[in-house]
Amino acid sequence: MNSRAITLTDVDFTYPGTRGRTVLRGYQARFEPGVHLLRGYSGCGKSTLLRLIAGYLAPDAGEIRVPGGRTPADRDYQVRSLGFVFQSLNLLDLVTVRQNLEMVGRLAGLPRPELAAAATHWLGVLGIGPLADERPDRLSGGQRQRAAFARAMVKHPDVLLLDEPTSGLDEVSTAALAGAARDFQRAAADRRIVIIAAHDDRLVAYADHVHGFAPPAGARP
Questions:
Q1: Is residue 108 part of a domain?
Q2: CATH code, domain carrying 15
Q3: Residue 221 falls within a domain, yes or no?
Q4: What does the pLDDT read at residue 16?
Q5: 96 vs 94: CA distance, rounded Å
Q6: pLDDT less than 70: residues of the chain
Q7: What pLDDT does residue 106 have?
Q8: Ordered strands of the 34-39 beta sheet
Q9: What pLDDT sits at residue 42?
Q10: Which residue range is the domain that position 131 belongs to?
């Protein structure tokens, strides 16, 4: 068995409460190193699946294993091996773009010279190097999206999860971000896993594997 894969075995998840929505029931999946695209309509549970893989949610039943045979709740996995771009981006607006990246890198334990080089590299690759010392709240929507990508990749995680990363973006920005994610995976193709949750058909060309995603039969929307 490839310990570098992500596996989900018989996973159930229902949002709590009397009107809880069942998102997964007996879900099985395996994600080997590569770029994976999860396709499905908005609200079908793709974001929930990413949060389960990230360890931000816990399954009601079943098992999830991430590279190294760990569970997603493993602190070292979350801090060092996981990059996540949220739909809401979650950038800190009170500090600069570069400082956003540096905070993530320091938590991951990157040496200062390595962190500085990685931050400069990814900001440059994503075309926002000149904006490194600006605060995120002064950037356009597309620039903020690029900053969130750079922050997720600065520690060179083994698992990169992208939640609707190109929503509302034009063709140029979509190509830049999707291409960066693909190139990031290719740089360490034997171990990096990129999972993109989106209903954007433009991303199919950048994926190695395309997975349909739908809620279990009988689930309430």
A1: yes
A2: 3.40.50.300
A3: no
A4: 85
A5: 7
A6: 1-2, 18-20, 215, 217-221
A7: 96
A8: 82-85, 159-163, 193-198, 34-39, 209-212
A9: 75
A10: 6-212
Query: Can you give the pLDDT at residue 8?
Result: 97
pLDDT value of position 221: 45
Alpha carbons 109 and 169: distance in angstroms, whole number: 33
Q: Is residue 220 assigned to a domain?
A: no
| pLDDT score of 80 | 95
For the chain, give the longest Cα–Cα distance. 53
User: What single string gives the DSSP state of each residue in the chain?
Assistant: --TTSEEEEEEEEE-SSTTPPEEEEEEEEEE-SEEEEEE--TTSSHHHHHHHHHTSS--SEEEEEBTTTB-TT-HHIIIIIEEEE-TT----TTS-HHHHHHHHHHHTT--HHHHHHHHHHHHHHTT-GGGTTS-GGGS-HHHHHHHHHHHHHTT--SEEEEESTTTT--HHHHHHHHHHHHHHHHTTTTT-EEEEEE--GGGGGG-SEEEE--PPTT---
